[in-house]
Amino acid sequence: GDSVTQMEGPVTLSEEAFLTINCTYTATGYPSLFWYVQYPGEGLQLLLKATKADDKGSNKGFEATYRKETTSFHLEKGSVQVSDSAVYFCALIPRDSASKIIFGSGTRLSIRP
Amino acid sequence: ETGVTQSPTHLIKTRGQQVTLRCSSQSGHNTVSWYQQALGQGPQFIFQYYREEENGRGNFPPRFSGLQFPNYSSELNVNALELDDSALYLCASSSKIHNQETQYFGPGTRLLVL
Fold first, then answer.
1. Relative to the CA of B79, which of A14, A63, B20, B95 has its CA 20 to 30 Å away?
2. Cα gap A75→A65, rounded to integer Å
3. Is B95 on the interface with A (CB under 8 A)?
4. How many CB atoms lie within 10 A of CB A75?
């Protein structure tokens, strides 16, 4: 079945460091891909999305590119801030089903001042 | 534009009891999905409601049931609570009218079953 695999955390970086969180997926056809962020004690917020191959989603300095050939959607940011500390979830919606989001297990990111 | 709201924010129940969680969808959205997020895990899809009908269900037993009302708000009911039902329950709304598949989440209800 469809699934999402993302790098295990926790990831700890210093402020202004470069961030990459790896995400790969398994799906039939071409799903839509998402990154959601969950700040402590809160629900999920949509960070960015891409709906077809080679699309780049971006928001708040974060970027991810839909790579069909490697079935990947890695999250990157050039210079992280303390306020980026959160749990990040990679997710997909299968092309044949707009009903459900399939999430990865999440990556906890901590940024040191 | 109001976002997705959920009530209550926290709830404590004992094993065997029943619980009802509530969700109000974002303005203009006609579809509500429910997810269960166990501690340290990603959310798992429970089911989705569209136009008051169930429109897809995940791998959850029948004691998890739901409703959607004409104003598109929704309820999640869980009967015969088990300890493993302790989790954060998230509601998300979206709009199928414009084939909008992006789902927007509420803050969640944290359920503890003792």
1. B95
2. 8
3. no
4. 25
From A6's Cα to the closest Cα of chain B, the distance in A is 11
Q: Do B104 and A100 touch (CB under 8 A)?
A: no
Residue B1, burial from CB neighbour count under 10 angstroms (0-12, 13-18, 19+):
exposed
How confident is the model over B48-100, as pLDDT tens digits? 999 899 988 999 999 999 999 999 999 999 999 999 999 999 999 988 655 55
Closest by CA position to B25, among listed B73, B63, B89:
B73
Contact list, A93 vs chain B (CB under 8 Å): 101
pLDDT tens figures, A7-41: 888 999 999 999 999 999 999 888 999 999 999 88
Which residues have a Cβ under 8 Å from the Cβ of A11 and sit 6 or more positions away?
A: A19, A21, A107, A108, A109, A110
Chain A nearest-CA distance from B79, in A, is 23
Tell me the pLDDT tens digit for each residue of A79-94. 999 999 999 999 999 8
The full length of chain B comes to 114
The answer to whether B71 faces chain A, any CB pair under 8 Å, is no
Cα gap B92→A93, rounded to integer Å: 14
> Quick one: closest CA in B to A42, which residue?
B107
